[in-house]
Amino acid sequence: MAVDLTEQTQPSPPSGSDPAVRRRRWRLMAILALWGPGLIVMLADTDAGCIITASQSGAQFGYSMVLPQVVLIPILFAVQEITARLGIVTGKGHGQLIRERFGLRWGLVSASTLVLSSIGALLTEFAGVAGVGELFGISKWVTIPTATVFLLGLAFTGSYRRAERIGIAVGLAELAFVPAMLLAHPHVHDLFQGTAGLPLGNQQYVYLLAANVGAVVMPWMIFYQQSAVVQRGLTVKALKQARLDTGVGTLLTQGIMIVVVIALAATVHKVNPGATLDDVGQIASSMAPFIGSNTAKVLIGASILGGALVAALVVSLAGSWGLAEVLGWKHSLNDRISRRNAKFYITYGLAHIVGAILVLVSVDLVGLAVDCEVLNALLLPIVLGFLLALEAKCLPAEHRMRGAYRIVLTTLCVVVICFGLYMVPSTLGWT
Fold this sequence. Notes:
Elements: H1 5-8, H2 19-32, H3 37-45, H4 48-61, H5 66-90, H6 94-102, H7 104-135, H8 140-155, H9 160-171, H10 177-183, H11 188-196, H12 203-214, H13 219-232, H14 239-265, H15 268-271, H16 280-291, H17 293-327, H18 342-360, H19 365-394, H20 403-428
């Protein structure tokens, strides 16, 4: 049963001579105490793969990918806001609601594809961690085990809020790309000129556009945020703060993507338009002539490492939570490992261990990334379809979408689904 944290999480009023100032500070701290699930899941959305995709977009097509990133902001917010509302109002995770409303079979379908997607994403994050280490001459045999121990340790602390706070702190390292962009000295005139026309007739541009759209709403994001608000015990009184949490997170993650596009557009695209950037080393080396070699390594390395670590935490928890919800396992991070919740913790641990081993033995990561992209694209119709159906079936009338908002959001979801499906034949070479 959900616990109302609007009172339990409120900190004691800070000391001070002015009662009005104390009240304002106390109110602000009480509000921030309810934030977290939206911020961490959005920071995870800007993972190593997304930063590489944004870098590729800026290097190849300059500022023309900025406007689509702006348009994606309301789509991302709307989908995740529904997710948070479902979790808060029902007090149940996404997998549990699917099982209860559509049966165990559909629950297993959603959970199994989620787990596969999460493991694939986890491998991508570990590859990002290895790439950052190699920038500084550190072997992946050091960085990957270290990251694995860190991520396992977070889950075994016996506190979801502690894991969430550490994850957010690590994920904020993504902001290191901001000074990299400023050092690139982008020109406002070039920015507006570049966003004026979109080369939709270019097949490669449309493919990258579809990749960016398909990467905005990940299946594991929906599972994670809904389970996270349940873990936090948030109630209906916290709905407004959950929306603000999600809104700030949306602006933050898309802001980072825009910053990456601008940084590469202002540098690499100017001197080598069409450049291909497939890994961390290529991004850093391409930026080095413009902002300095060491600066590029530090800023880009910190940004990708932060995104990779927070995403690894979120995707592994999303997969473990989703499977546990469908199968009815105990799965709270607020409980230390015991016989009652051992299956959940074992699933979480195995995801990291298997992912680390596969990266260390040099699995074909390029082929794996392609497979994961196709899988995520195929999942979008299922995940978004379930989300809209659960919103209509599980929420009381006063918390459902109504009127024009329902029409607009449903249309946006269809657009995301279509772009996701577009990626499948393109990636497989059918077109």
